[in-house]
Amino acid sequence: MSPIDHRSEPRSGSSTFTDVHLNLPDRREGKIRISYALDDRHRLLITTDRISAFDRVLGAVRYKGQVLNQLGGFWFAQLGDLTAHHYVREVDPNAQIVRTAIPLPVEVVVRGYITGVTSTALWTRYAAGDREVYGHRLPEGLTKNSPLATALVTPTTKASNGGHDEPITNAEVVSRGLVSESIWSEVHDRALAIFARGSHIAAKAGLILADTKYEFGLDPDTGEILLIDEVHTPDSSRLWVTESYPERMRLGTEPESLDKELLRLALAGHHGDPDEIPADLLAATLDASSSRYIRAFEQITGNEFSPATYPVEDRLNLLMPELTASCTPSDQPTDRIQ
Ligand SMILES: Nc1ncnc2c1ncn2[C@@H]1O[C@H](COP(=O)(O)OP(=O)(O)OP(=O)(O)O)[C@@H](O)[C@H]1O
Ligand SMILES: [Mg+2]
Predict the structure, then answer these.
(1) Distance from C-alpha of 242 to C-alpha of 265, rounded to nearest angstrom
(2) pTM of the entire structure?
(3) I want to staple 67 with a disulfide (CB 3.0 to 4.6 A). Which of 118, 267, 293, 323 is the partner?
(4) What is the pLDDT of residues 121-142, one digit of tens each?
């Protein structure tokens, strides 16, 4: 039994982890993660409990940061023979040391199923009559949420703060000069191999990896291509429950999903406008999302989730002496963990 029973513990919006300021250099902040330089080759990557939808942070989900951080650790270990990656080690349930990379300016989206609701989604484009999508020819007769004959790489540009990612073809990634042909060819093939492995592991855990988004970066010294950021988490992926999928397809309802489904549904009920969701509905939705994220962690890893104590900021501050001492420039980067 874990020290805290997360299933019976009251969860309030206030007991979440949304921000931290550490006495470390080069702070960078994304929608979900905060990172600092540890030395010239390593960063501390901290995952908060924030949750975003349609490129906006809408609130926080208790334990989400821990789930993402630890699930990332699990997946990088599973993928180490397919790709070099940034993961070095976990230093806290919400933080890991990673190799510093120069991120490629492309989001590498891989889709095994045709789905989605936004304007860039495969299903939205297909339903509007497009049969040539992201440079891929799609057959007639596909239905929403059905599998594609083979997984497809559908890249997007990486929008800067506040912007939206723009879909591009594989050819445009190179012709626009975003990534060189040789690097893109390697990234493309690696993404498909990682997706195949991920789908296989998810299937054994009773889940369908419907689609996902990878980020790759280059080692600043060697140019080595690294898988970075996060991998196969409920934030970067659609994870559907295999058992209920056939029945839901038969009924024409949406698959049972261990990701942001609850938030998306709440948004859909309010014209997709976060400002229209009543505060109490938003709070209840974020509360209920916590167990979905935990279930994803437990189902994929096969391990019981062991919730760490809040406040996370206090734990991270206690780590400071170790962090400033542990990672010196003489550290050898670990690109593979077994
Ligand atoms: N090893 C790494 N070296 C350098 N930067 C990294 C590394 N891994 C991840 N990053 C960057 O750190 C940031 C992580 O923050 P976060 O996940 O919150 O971004 P975000 O706002 O969600 O953006 P996105 O939607 O593109 O993921 C991203 O900008 C990512 O590119
Ligand atoms: Mg991200």
Answers:
(1) 20
(2) 0.91
(3) 293
(4) 899 999 999 999 989 999 999 9
